């Protein structure tokens, strides 16, 4: 049986959907899962053991045209899909599912957010929007579940490993050095810890550890990262846009520490087991926090009354929710995580 999952969401959200994909496989052991995705999330589902086939839908391109939509509908009809789960929650996935002749469409109905999509949903799920997003997606598949499983990242290839090794070699990284990765920018400015804070933190980390400090990000973050590096007295390396998602997973898995704002890279990092500090401001970790939380994962969040918010940057001049997370606090927690890992490594070697 072919089952469609509408996962036309962002990188972090597709990863947060993976426990739901796993539950579909458990409920329908012989099924094939076909995923509708955005092109830039391809590497989350490609080579992922939970996904059998994927269809890329570029919602911002000419593919929104009638001809391309008809191509997708014909493809889905040829697959004889029996059921669809809508994780995106928007009208487009519900409408496509019905035009493709899928007999059973399952999706969320929360307040008035999905009122138009609801016209095409056969099995409606009324789910609390305040749940952690991974559990929210899981309840679309199985409303009785109250605890989510871990996230499932796609499996890196040999080529991915070669690329990461070459990148690390290009900065003369040695395996006995500390490798510290930073993600300095979110998908919008209100998620960003102040640039000057990151500059001060890098200087302190370099002073104490003589580490190799790498700043990761999307291709359009390169100039922002260059702006940080230009103000440093010490050294850091700009890897923004230089890795694929699977290569990023490998890079983070080799790291001693990952310090990040709330973004898709945080969820990728959470699947590696690498010690991580995640900073939240306008978004809440109660909904978007790391799923694989343990003693090596620290979430910093001030929980001010105005958070979570959906303000525009010019509507929040203070940005106090992230400014109040100090460099000193992040540095102290970094030292604790690095020291803890050193102690464990020492015990293993003995």
From TrEMBL:
It catalyses: an L-alpha-D-Hep-(1->5)-[alpha-Kdo-(2->4)]-alpha-Kdo-(2->6)-lipid A + ADP-L-glycero-beta-D-manno-heptose = an L-alpha-D-Hep-(1->3)-L-alpha-D-Hep-(1->5)-[alpha-Kdo-(2->4)]-alpha-Kdo-(2->6)-lipid A + ADP + H(+). GO terms for cellular component: cytosol. Gene3D superfamilies: Glycogen Phosphorylase B (3.40.50.2000). GO terms for biological process: lipopolysaccharide core region biosynthetic process. Keywords: Glycosyltransferase, Transferase. The keyword Transferase applies. Belongs to the glycosyltransferase 9 family. CDD domains: GT9_LPS_heptosyltransferase. GO terms for molecular function: ADP-heptose-lipopolysaccharide heptosyltransferase activity. The keyword Ribonucleoprotein does not apply. The lineage of its organism: unclassified sequences, metagenomes, ecological metagenomes. This is lipopolysaccharide heptosyltransferase II. Its EC number is 2.4.99.24.
